[in-house]
Amino acid sequence: MKQSKPNQPDLRIGTAGWSIPRQSAEQFPANGTHLERYAAVLTCAEINSSFYRPHRVSTWAKWAASVPDDFRFAVKAPKTITHEARLACTPEDLKNFLAEITTLGPKLGPILVQLPPSLAFQSATAKTFFTMLRDLHQGPIVFEPRHATWFTAEADDLLKVLHIARVAADPAPVPEAATPGGWNKLIYYRLHGSPRMYYSPYTQAFLNSLADSIAQHQQASTVWCIFDNTATGAALGDVNILRNLLHAKPQTANPT
Questions:
Q1: Contact at 8 Å (CB) between 109 and 224?
Q2: Per-residue CA distances from 63 to 23, 35, 75, 77, 103 (Å)
Q3: What is the spatial order of strands in the sheet that 168-170 belongs to?
Q4: Which of 190, 182, 187 is nearest to 221 (CA)?
Q5: Residue 25: C-alpha distances to residues 28, 31, 143 (Å)
Q6: Residues 133-164: tens digit of each pLDDT
Q7: Which among 165, 109, 169 has a CA at the least distance from the CA of 139?
């Protein structure tokens, strides 16, 4: 991995999962597992399967052993916590999840907490949950709310105090969701594809604008950009275009 220049963010660009579609295969080594091949070129990936089910400790350990030391995994919090308990979970629920993912060791990047679109901001519930999560986990946390009530000064202030970054999402459920919020030392773009979520590649104009936006985050320590439009393999094409755009920007950290 190329090192970021002094006083510039550690920039990580990757995809949800590490599938390598046929149209992108020539960009990666021919031998190894999909993860080993992916991690030979890119330095991050987002694990979404953790949202649906727990994994064995041996699975997390295998993933960690498959990637270089400078690789990082973002991990999505389980739906049992975010969608079923609707943040009103027990400490044990969080401890069980954290016990799994800490098997990744230093290769664990941000925990992603994504809420259902119907879950509105309730100050007491939000403060209890995020304080409990922060007490149990000192590492990076990113948050993707999707109800309009979360995009307020009160909610943003809570995130800032607890050093939690709000995701910049596309498509944005409300206009404010398109830009990062909360703690600004960590920036996390989560791009699902548009106009058809999970399928559509992004236009050159969108990627140009995204590169310009990323280049402005000089106050951040780390910037992540995850493409989740993986259904037809568009994500890796968008990753490649964005990396090339950012390589051409002299004031930007080297994309990795």
A1: yes
A2: 24, 8, 12, 17, 9
A3: 168-170, 186-191, 222-227, 10-16, 44-47, 72-76, 108-114, 141-144, 165-166, 181-182
A4: 187
A5: 6, 11, 32
A6: 999 999 999 999 999 999 999 999 999 999 99
A7: 109
Residue 185: which of 221, 144, 134, 209 has the closest Cα?
221
Assigned token pair, 52: 């649906």
pLDDT in tens, 204-242: 999 999 999 999 999 999 999 999 999 999 999 999 999
Distance, CA of 131 to CA of 69 (rounded, Å): 30
- Determine the Cα–Cα distance for residues 27 and 143; give it in Å rounded to an integer: 31
| Cβ partners under 8 Å of residue 71, min gap 6 | 39, 43, 44, 45, 107
Crossing angle of helices 153-161 and 123-136, in 10° steps, is 20
Query: How is residue 246 written in tokens?
Result: 């950012």
